[in-house]
Write a structure and sequence with these properties.
Elements (H helix, E strand, L loop, with lengths): L7 E4 H8 L4 E2 L4 H6 L5 E4 L1 E7 L5 E4 L2 E4 L4 E5 L5 E3 L8 E7 H5 L8 H8 L2 E3 L2 H19 L5 H24 L12 H12 L6 H8 L3 H12 L3 H19 L4 H7 L5 H12 L7
Parallel strand pairs: 1-3
Antiparallel strand pairs: 2-9, 4-7, 4-9, 5-6, 5-8, 7-10
Helix pairs in contact: 4-7, 5-6, 8-9, 11-12
Length: about 280
Amino acid sequence: MSSAEEYLAIDIVERLKLYGSKGMLMSLDVHKISNRDLRNFHISGGLVICLCCGYEGILTIDGKEYELGCECLVVLPENHLISFSEPVTPASMKIIAVTTDYVLDMPSPIDTSIFSYSRYIPVMRVSESKYEDFESYFRFIDKELRESSRYQEQIIRSILYALILEISGEYDAQYNLSTGAELKSNNLTDRFFQLLSVYYKENRTVHFYADKLNVTPKHLSTTIRKATGRHVLDWMHEAVLIEAKMLLRTTDMAIYEIADALNFSCSSAFVQFFKKHTGTTPGRA
């Protein structure tokens, strides 16, 4: 595998600023990116939702290969090393890029599990009817982007919100993830991210996850760093921060209530954690 330095960095937030968008866009400008090698890249700042409509090739994430084809939904996670075996074109794949903050600012509380799903089940094959449903959302968003109306931003946000709920619902339907059921995988990285999606509110130590996975903390840390280019603690902290931001923006919970929900010893510990990792206090987030 190439090192992280050899991969093209795609910052969704910066790219949206370039296009003057406010949180999402229908394409990452595939033509320009492909010229710089779309086959080796990593994303930061959000998610990329892809609908395969003719692409036939292999998607590789952190060295693990996924065969793509028609009626296939892909949710590319941020901060992972990604490559496509064949060039991606607008005709072969429809793309929506969305920032993390845009998802967390949805009209009503949204299940943040889609961030976890994208890490350990980035590729999902769906039925023909469900594919048509997803395709309709893409088509509706594209239509609204091409038209000018007074409520354009609100309409697009609502459609995207519905799409994400549909995707989360399909994950639950296929994998029964809402019950915490274990995925059948021998891949240590897969199993770590699945455990993280279940226990991130309760446990933030390497030893806890290493014990659950029957490996040493050193082995787990080495494996995750080799696979993703990031320390295992970074992933734990990120999961907590996403949930904290969601609670801050979509509920009336007080800081001490959020601190308790996320298993911090006290409010000040949560505030210090949040400021350390975001540069600002929860009250200003």
